[in-house]
Specification:
GO terms for molecular function: telomerase RNA binding; telomeric DNA binding. InterPro entries: DNA/RNA-bd_Est1-type, Est1-like_N, Est1/Ebs1-like, TPR-like_helical_dom_sf. By secondary structure, this protein is mainly α. The protein contains 38 helices and 9 strands. 60% of the residues lie in helices and 3% in strands. The chain has a 5-stranded parallel beta sheet with strand order 5-4-3-6-9. The longest helix has 37 residues. It is elongated, with a radius of gyration of 47 Å.
Length: 1083
């Protein structure tokens, strides 16, 4: 079949007919001109633009005549017809091959063979004609050919089918047929590949000549055009055509290398010709694929082909790197992910144990190459587990790169002379480490990006938490690799600086430059990706969401977040503390200055936003004379690291990097130090606020006159003065356990009427709240447990009481001065600033010796036995008084808070204190304050009984149960006292924990004032029969034990300490003033 423009007139046409045709031709052309009417364009702007040439027309779109375009259409139609005919012949050939009879005689077989041969000959003829048509289309208009995908059709219909058919025959003949048959077939195979390779090489040479293409820069130009405009240009079409041709050339070279000239593995001759030709074919194949990458940076197919070459000749990490690159392009490879998964299934890992951490013994165990191999296998196991198996079951991170560099540097410095062979060996090791690190960082960032794209799919919404967990593991791995490498190299270089003599110190700067040139490319890639995609790590560092999900093998997502934050913090600290970290004045070359790794990774989608800002052609004038030196490249890489630190400092998600404007440097704040500083600051603010409140209240008290007389009272002043003189004040000091265990009782004591049947009260309560109690309540207020709720309620109550007293000017206090009158009812106040001993050493005068204390305990046991019998007779009186208890201030305490407290504690044993034990270091106590709120709510379940208590008629039964529990506890404690007599240990006042010193200091201050006063003990009652006028109410067993070691050393009488329940029962008795010490807890 021939086209119309190539056909010639037949031979039987006479000259006369030719003359007639020539005469008619001008008339026909004139008539066509007359019939043609020029229509008026509807849009003049479009018409004007239509006739204007495009910007790229002079270079990439040569003008074509109308006849040429008509020929292209005819050629395209002819090519389509030939393709259809070729497909039909291929189908017929398959039928003929299938119909070849077996064991039917020579004649029948010969006929079948002739049919197959005829079909193959016809296919060869059609294929040659189709190749000619394709070549004509390419010669006429390359852009039109590219739009019609002629390059792909040329490979699919012309070159690839014969190659694949021959390869199939070679596989079958390789082991069974004689060598002559194999040699003839392999020769034909290589000749066909060589001719096809020459065709593509000439075609590319023609394209580069016609369109003036530079294969090293066209890929960058196309990338810049794609970033600025999404529309495809003529330059893009030419680049795509060149890339397709280069890929075909690489495939042809790879096919030739897969079948060398000798079919069997024969020994090599002296010249090693066979190995050389095979290696040369692999090298040509890799070069063609790399050129395909250079001319067009948006396709992932050449990277996928490079992975196939590396699988045969390269390392394992190169294969994974090329497949990862093919997946991260704008046009990813369709088979890249499946091929990578298949490749991992064939890999067999050998190293399972981590490397030894001692670098001194590593030289005798492993070589530098073995250390690098260990790191690569450890990394690939991690990558395979996270990306394909979707779990975090992989070995720990390997430090093989750092150990390899340490071993190489140490071996270099121990040699007496630096010969050329040793320097080449060191350079080779450093080059392998650099290549491995660069590929590792690239694979990590591609995997992080791929995991993020995977999470965006709606089908994976249910697995988003697990995918985030895996993405954090990848980020954590990258930070740890770089941090460990920097720390290892810095430590070995610092050691060399200390140990090297003056003569050998000249080689240290050059060695340091080699180390920086090895590590900084990977650092530059990692930092460039992160500071242009800051949301990737910011989403995990902006605080936890509070949900403790348990993905995969049970590891908490919040724990992974904390590990990632620590890794980022350590990485930033390592960068800022590095001696080469630049200052702002040294940054002459910007981060947009092009580097070798930028050209290597150009087109990668995760780095697309960063590469769009890189000045690849250096169009900006830089104020540097030597821009291509190693120092200039090192400066640019450190500039990108500093840009990452700047983004971290400016982001609201990271609060551990700060910038000092005065010194123009960055600093990393340690999390523990920051937490301690925050705790100390909050404590100082709370103390200052309390001091201001106390000072303001003292001023208000000094200005007002305290009078017990109320409005509407008609009694004479004489009974009032008598009552004021006869009032006994019982000072009750409460600690934090009193508020947490019995807030309602504390409210009741602040408004307690001790004897409701008397018109004039002879006894009142002064409830004193130490300042340290308020601080502890402030610590306990954060949380959702019952204890935290009680702490917040207590703070609100104290704030309300203090504010009410300040506004009404009715706060009642007692002083040693006789100028102030004693109030007539119970009240609550806070400790004043000067109400303490001042120095803790003054507490030594109140310390009771152990011998006297033991004697006192025996006396107390004797009184406790009498108290048990006395309690049985007073149960009915106590129950009656409980039902009559009321508060004078209904605004402060509601009915639900009124309680006798009999059912608050089922047993009268003191509980352990909630406050944590701390040592003398205040910073350690601040750092542990976060864990103090984790006390269980079961220990404080009795608080709910206290808050929800209501008066009932079942108090008799409860009192009986309480008495029985008291008797049982007395017996148990007597046995315990006998058992603990042998465990005696001498203590002093200095052993008191600092946690309890503020409360005991306040208690001893009032005890000291009580000893100085002569009116503390009533005239009608002896000191031994009188209830103490100063008591400490606490449920803390440790505080009780320490408080009972203080008192009057001369008499051996210790301070009075009661539990909340015990003190409330004492207050509810009818004969309170005559109540003896037997109400105290047995010891």
């Amino acid at each position: 079949m021939q086209t119309s423009h190539q056909s010639r007139p037949p031979n039987d046409i006479t000259d006369k007919e030719e003359q007639q045709m020539q005469q008619q031709l001008p008339h026909t052309q004139e008539s066509q001109k007359r019939r043609r009417r020029r229509r008026r364009p509807r849009n003049r702007t479009k018409a004007a633009n239509k006739h204007q040439p495009k910007e790229s027309s002079p270079t990439f779109a040569p003008s074509l005549s109308q006849e040429t375009r008509y020929d292209l259409k005819d050629l395209t139609r002819e090519a389509s017809a030939l393709e259809k005919q070729l497909n039909e012949l291929q189908t017929q050939l398959n039928i003929n091959l299938a119909n070849i009879p077996k064991d039917q005689g020579r004649r029948i077989n010969a006929i079948a063979r002739e049919q197959v041969t005829a079909t193959e000959d016809e296919m060869d003829y059609v294929r040659k004609r189709l190749k000619t048509v394709y070549q004509q289309i390419l010669n006429c208009d390359l852009l039109y050919a590219s739009s019609q995908h002629v390059e792909d059709r040329l490979w699919r219909y012309i070159f690839y089918p014969p190659i694949e058919e021959t390869r199939s025959r070679l596989r079958k003949l390789q082991s069974s047929d004689p060598s002559t048959v194999w040699q003839n077939l392999i020769t034909t195979y290589h000749q066909y590949i060589d001719s096809s390779f020459k065709f593509y090489r000439d075609l590319n040479h023609n394209i580069k000549t016609v369109y003036h293409v530079d294969t090293k820069t066209i890929g960058i130009d196309v990338f810049r055009h794609q970033v600025m405009a999404s529309a495809i240009t003529d330059e893009d079409k030419v680049a795509i055509l060149l890339q397709s041709n280069y890929i075909c050339m690489g495939d042809l070279a790879r096919y030739r290398a897969s079948f060398p000239s000798t079919g069997k593995a024969s020994p090599k001759d002296d010249n090693n010709n066979s190995l050389s030709s095979t290696a040369n074919a692999w090298k040509i194949s890799k070069t063609c694929y790399q050129k395909a990458v250079d001319v067009y940076r948006s396709s992932g197919k050449p990277y996928s082909q490079l992975a196939l070459v590396s699988a045969s000749t390269g390392s394992v990490i190169d294969v994974v790197w090329y497949y990862s690159m093919s997946l991260a392009m704008k046009q990813p490879s369709s088979l890249g992910f499946a091929n990578l998964k298949s490749f991992y299934s064939k890999v067999r890992f050998t190293f399972s144990k981590p490397l030894p951490t001692d670098s001194s013994g590593l030289a005798d165990q492993m070589k530098a190459s073995d250390c690098i191999s260990h790191f690569v296998e450890s990394f690939l196991q991690m990558h395979h587990a996270i990306v394909f198996q979707k779990n975090d079951s992989f070995p720990p991170i390997s430090h093989g790169l750092g150990l390899a560099m340490t071993q190489t540097i140490t071996a270099l410095m121990t040699e007496s002379g630096l010969d050329l062979t040793l320097m080449k060996n060191v350079s080779s090791i450093f080059h392998i480490v650099r290549s491995t690190l660069t590929r590792t960082i690239t694979i990590l960032l591609v995997s992080v990006w791929y995991m993020g794209e995977f999470m965006k799919a709606k089908a994976n919404a249910s697995h988003q938490s697990e995918l985030q967990h895996l993405q954090m593991l990848l980020l954590d791995y990258g930070f740890d690799v770089l941090t460990n490498l920097f720390k290892t190299t810095n430590s070995i270089l610092e050691q060399l600086n200390r140990d090297t003599t003056h003569d050998g110190s000249e080689s240290i700067p050059s060695l340091s430059a080699m180390v920086d040139n090895t590590i900084l490319p990977g650092l530059s890639i990692w930092c460039a990706y992160l500071y242009t995609n800051m949301d990737v790590i910011a989403q995990y560092c902006h605080g936890a969401d509070g949900r403790h999900t348990m993905p995969l093998n049970g590891k908490s997502k919040d724990a992974t977040k904390r590990s990632l934050v620590r890794s980022i913090q350590t990485f930033c600290s390592c960068l800022i503390g590095h001696p080469s970290f630049p200052l702002p004045v040294n940054n002459v070359l910007p981060s947009s200055y092009p580097l070798s790794e930028d050209v290597l990774l150009l087109g990668l989608v995760p780095l697309r936003s960063f590469h769009s800002s890189v000045d690849f052609f250096k169009e900006t004038a830089y104020e540097v004379d030597e821009q291509t030196t190693a120092d200039a490249r090192q400066q640019v890489r450190w500039c990108r690291a500093r840009e990452f630190i700047r983004k971290i400092a400016e982001s609201q998600s990271f609060n551990f990097v700060q910038y000092n404007q005065a010194e123009q440097n960055y600093s990393v704040i340690d999390e523990n130090a920051k937490r301690q500083q925050q705790s100390r600051f909050m404590k100082a603010l709370a103390t200052q606020r309390l001091m201001e409140q106390v000072s303001s209240l003292e001023k208000n008290v000094n200005k007002m006159n305290v009078s017990p007389k109320k409005a509407g009272e008609k009694s004479s002043s004489k009974p009032e003065n008598m009552a004021a003189e006869q009032v006994d004040v019982y000072v009750v000091i409460v600690d934090v356990t009193a508020f947490l265990d019995g807030l309602a009782k504390v409210k009741k004591w602040a408004n307690q009427t001790l004897n409701v049947r008397r018109r004039v009260q002879s006894s009142i309560l002064q409830v004193v709240v130490p300042l340290d109690v308020i601080d502890v309540l402030d610590l306990y207020k954060k949380g959702d447990s019952h204890m935290n709720l009680q702490a917040r309620e207590s703070i609100r109550y104290l704030d309300h009481q203090l504010t009410l007293a300040a506004n009404n000017k009715e706060q009642h206090t007692t002083d040693d001065s006789n100028t102030k009158k004693t109030p007539a009812r119970s009240f609550l106040r806070t400790q004043k600033v000067d109400e303490n001993l001042g120095d803790w050493d003054q507490a030594s005068s109140f310390w009771i010796d152990d011998d006297k204390n033991a004697h006192k305990d025996d006396a107390d046991h004797h009184r406790d036995d009498n108290d048990d019998a006395h309690n049985d007779n007073n149960n009915e009186e106590m129950d009656a008084m409980d039902n009559q208890t009321a508060l004078t201030d209904s605004d402060d305490v509601d009915d639900a808070s009124i309680s006798s407290g009999d059912d608050l504690f089922k047993s009268h044993g003191r509980r352990r204190g909630r406050r944590f034990m701390q040592d003398d270091d205040d910073e350690q106590s601040d750092s542990n304050s976060d864990t103090d709120d984790t006390a269980t709510d079961d220990d404080y379940s009795t608080e709910e009984d206290d808050d929800n208590y209501s008066e009932s008629g079942d108090d008799d039964d409860e009192d009986d149960n309480d008495d029985v529990s008291d008797l049982d506890e007395v017996q148990k404690e007597d046995v315990n006292d006998d058992d603990n007599e042998d465990d005696y240990q001498e203590l002093s006042y200095t052993d008191v924990p600092k946690t309890y010193r503020p409360i005991l200091n306040c208690m001893l201050h009032f005890y000291q004032q009580q000893q100085k006063s002569t009116s503390t003990i009533s005239a009608t009652t002896s000191a031994g029969d009188q209830v103490e006028h100063l008591v400490l109410v606490t449920n803390d067993e440790d505080l009780t034990a320490w408080a009972e070691r203080f008192g009057d050393p001369s008499s051996g009488k210790s301070l009075a300490v009661y539990t909340v329940h015990e003190w409330d029962r004492i207050l509810n008795t009818r004969t309170f003033e005559r109540k003896t010490n037997t109400s105290r807890r047995p010891k």
